[in-house]
Specification:
Rossmann fold; 2 domains; 44% helix; seven-stranded parallel sheet; 15 helices; alpha/beta
């Protein structure tokens, strides 16, 4: 097959492309590299700031569009798959529909349905937009609501979701959200995110040294993702148990540098309001780093996983984060087993070749 993966979130498409190429398919990634993360791509669609950056981007896009014709499959990372206004993207989408066989929408991140369903229907016990029956009203959540509801982004999101040939959810939360929408649940699949396993992963003993805690900070989305709560709990514990634990805080570094910093850690704190580990945590788990974050039973159920429980699941509260972290700091002997389970979990469910085969089967069924 000839496949175009358009847009990027946290290395999803770049990693999937490697798997699809290994299976013998022609696969092109067109993206902006996910901003500062600078993931690999074949067609560069990065838009830099300023008038000259805009003009350069529009020229790149104009010359790239003819290269986006004649594919068996075009997969979009999100309705906002380009750094353009929604009212302009809709014309690019129609062009792609007209000149390719099948177009698939990825439910991999923020879109209209993720915002609207979790604000109004609230199928999840907690999410980026609700805690139980209470709607979250922090500044970032409100900004995102205003951005996606009753706007051109809503129009675009609805149009692509209803006219695309299929929708793929990459996390259990996204699957549960789209499953609430009649007309969309009938053309949706869940396929786990792909991770390229390290060639050599050694699980080191940690009983005789400090527990190393890692957290990545995105200042603009710290409260939205719960990083502020996790960070406070970790700082308080490191202050209390400074002889037993240490904390590394990272912000805005390129992916290659980020990976190396993660490798030196025992625990990664990631996405407090999630049921499941996303790409950042999955990458760390593949290296034997234990994820503290989303590990609800629904995550294991959708994967048919009945044995492994590698994730230290926390509820979206300071008290839960503090309690779980304190327990592992005081019982570092448990880390070796959790690290080994983390590696096995990724191998079973997220290995990029296995995931690519699932996509291959879906693509072939649509052609």
């Amino acid at each position: 097959m000839k496949i175009l993966l358009l847009g990027e979130y946290s290395n999803v498409h770049a990693t999937l492309a490697k798997g699809l190429r290994t299976l013998g398919h022609e696969c092109i990634v067109a993206s902006n590299g996910d901003f500062w993360k600078q993931y690999e791509r074949d067609i560069d669609l990065e838009r830099k700031e300023g008038i000259f950056g805009t003009l350069s981007f529009l020229l790149k896009l104009m010359f790239s569009l003819p290269k986006m014709r004649g594919y068996d499959i075009v997969q979009l990372i999100n309705p906002m798959f380009l750094e353009l206004k929604a009212e302009h993207i809709i014309y690019i989408y129609r062009y792609l529909k007209r000149h390719n066989k099948r177009v698939i929408l990825g439910a991999f991140g923020i879109d209209y349905y993720w915002v609207k369903v979790n604000t109004d229907i609230r199928p999840l016990r907690y999410s980026d937009f609700n805690i139980g029956n209470c709607v979250r009203t922090d500044d970032t959540a409100e900004v995102i609501r205003r951005d996606w509801v009753n706007t051109a982004k809503e129009t675009l999101s609805k149009h692509i979701a209803t006219t695309s040939d299929w929708i793929v959810a990459g996390l259990q939360e996204y699957w549960a959200t789209y499953n609430e929408v009649a007309g969309l649940r009938e053309k949706m699949s869940f396929i786990p995110f792909p991770i390229e396993m390290p060639q050599h992963t050694a699980v080191c003993k940690t009983e005789d040294k400090k527990v190393r805690i890692f957290i990545g900070i995105s200042k603009s989305r710290s409260a939205y993702k719960g990083t502020d709560i996790m960070l406070k709990a970790a700082k308080d514990l490191v202050d209390k148990y400074h002889e037993k634990a240490e904390l590394a805080i990272v912000n805005g570094v390129p992916f290659e540098q980020y990976q190396k910093m993660v490798e030196d850690s025992d625990l990664i704190l990631d996405q407090l309001y999630s049921y499941t580990p996303a790409m950042n945590a999955l990458m760390a788990m593949s290296k034997g780093v234990v994820n503290v974050g989303g590990g609800e039973e629904e995550n294991y159920q959708i994967l048919d996983e009945t044995e492994l429980r590698p994730i230290i699941n926390v509820l979206p509260t300071y008290e839960s984060c503090y309690s779980e972290l304190e327990h592992i700091i005081l019982h570092p002997e448990k880390l070796a087993s959790l690290k080994q389970q983390s590696i096995e979990y990724i191998h079973r469910h997220h290995d990029y070749i296995k995931v690519a085969r699932q996509y291959e089967q879906l693509y072939l069924s649509l052609l």
